[in-house]
Amino acid sequence: MRCSFVNRTYLGLCGIAARIVVKQWNQHVTVEIVILAMIAAFLGLRLYSVLGRRAEHEEEPIQGRFDNPPGAPRAPTPQQVEDVDTFPPRMPQREYPAADPMVERGLRDIASVDRRFDAFAFMEGARSAYRMVLEAFWEGDKDELRHLCDASVYESFAAAIDARNEAGETLENRLVRIEETAISVAQYDAPMARITVRFRADIAAVTRDAQGNVIAGSLDDAIEAIDVWTFARDTKSPDPDWVLDETDEG
Predict the structure, then answer these.
(1) Is residue 65 part of a domain?
(2) Closest Cα partner for 126 from 53, 189, 180?
(3) Residues 13, 135 within the same domain
(4) Is residue 45 one of the residues assigned to a domain?
């Protein structure tokens, strides 16, 4: 009877001691796991901070399939970059209006020595100059003509204006529209560039005498006029303007 009590007491104490040991061992293991996890996290953050920065600076971005959709502008090719750096630059096709080979060759010769030259811009300027010269002549504005024409053409216009004034006549002309503008000749004879333009326009013209009576023409009926004008520019001059160098009828 006493042995049984002793045995139960001994076994109970052993069980309590075992639970205490297991509990202490579990706590010890848990602390070690926590410490190891903290060390691993710290090392991971350090590696990410180092490798992440290097990846940002060293890796090239990968182009996605939506980065350059069909129809979007593409990056220039090495050949295109070479063309831009070429002097004189290769002129795009837009720089040359529809013309025969001789005219196109002349335009290319002019563009090779004048990098600012643009044939389409020249054509717009020629149309404006055509209107400005005609209106200045009709109104007798010699100062405007002096800026738009070279010396010989200016003298011709000035002489016609003087003769008209002496006769007491005035003009009431009006440029209705310019129907057609085309380059017929283009040539470069260093240092001068010359371009001949053919204008086809509708003009309403009236001439009055000193008393204001209509002696010629009608503002109601426009007539077709064809003029062939040559514009010139010294390519060595800093002045970018072209001047009217020659006039003729078509």
Answers:
(1) no
(2) 180
(3) no
(4) yes
pLDDT in tens, 55-85: 444 444 434 333 344 433 444 444 444 444 4
Contact 239, 213 (CB under 8 A): no
CA atoms of 243 and 148, how far apart (whole Å): 5
pTM: 0.62
Owning domain of residue 43: 1-53
Give the C-alpha distances (Å, rounded to integers) separating 130 from 24, 158, 161.
107, 17, 17
Which tens digit of pLDDT belongs to each residue from 114-167? 989 999 999 999 999 999 999 999 999 999 999 999 999 999 999 999 999 999
Q: Of 48, 59, 195, which Cα lies nearest the Cα of 120?
A: 195
Long-range contacts of 56-62 (CB under 8 A, 24+ apart): none
**96 shares a domain with 13:** no
- Domain count for the chain: 2
Do 237 and 180 fall into the same domain? Answer: yes
Q: What is the rounded CA–CA span in Å between residue 196 and residue 229?
A: 6
